[in-house]
Please model this.
Amino acid sequence: MTVPLRPPLLVQRRPSKVLLIGLVVSSALALVVLAVMLRSGGPVGFGLSLLLALAPLPVLLAAVLSLDRLEPEPKLHLAFAFAWGAGVAIVLGVALTLAGQALFSSAGYGAQVVDAMGTVFLAPVIEEALKGSALLLLLRRRREIDGLTDGIVYASMAGLGFAAVENVGYYLSAFLRSGVDATVQLFVMRGLIDPLGHPVYTSMIGLGVAYALTRRGPARYAMIPLGYLAAVVLHALWNGTASLRSLGWLATAYLVIMAALVLLVVVTVRERRQLLARMGAYLPAYQYTGLVTPPDLAMLGSLAGRRRARRWAGRAGLGRAMSDYQHAATELTMLHLRAEREGMEPVRFAAERDALLGAMANARRW
Model:
């Protein structure tokens, strides 16, 4: 039996109006912040600061997105998370931190204590809550978060957006205070040595949210506040040791953050292997359709096999078709996993399954 061709339907849902509005508002706020920096710092200082802040961003974005190669997330959702971090989280983070410092100052604390409270306590607590709120807003599109990797990717995008705009401000302050040399030295620390600080912190929240969405039992929701606590602790650890200006303490904090980064990589690699293994469990049942053959199963079961297939298809002018086929097969596996995890009405499952089989049929031209 061969499934008849039909228009591809890789879950083509209408864009969320809420996310579109959030994207526009957040982007506008980020532009306003940058415009204020330009006016206060002048074109030379601002231009240098913006260049240094953006320089590592393409590599960082590529690294984050490479974690989600099997089931790429919708571009609108990724753009929303990045813009939220760069706009809403930055503006509210600065405003709330300054308000909190004003309260401590009005209570009679000295300037040194107020600065320390802002750096070590207020900034981590407020900023991580704001960056992590992007994940909570995405809960309305909860089916987009199918695993822990998705939570890490969305949280990292929010962290990268926040860090990009924040770094412009830090570099500009260094330029205005001490000139080009101090700005470049700060870039080495923030842009080269520790460029993944904010993404790592907020990824703890992403893990918590994704765990709550992809596991069973009421206790799973406890992982959200635990993830937030871990993000705050990591953020406060780095800020606190940086303010001490002790190389030993800073190195210790850096090692802790790198350990958290290794944990995130291990989680994504392990989940990717599990997903590939589940493909080997679910997809053989569809061999009767003619859409999945033993060579297809071998190809879909490894990243290397997928890359080789896309290269071969590209030479034959079928690169897009192969990518669509692999995407649909992965979505079909994810559909089985969601049905197994959450339960799903048979009629709904059959409709989504048939749509994905139709997409595979439309794409498979070899």
About this structure: The chain has a mean pLDDT of 91.
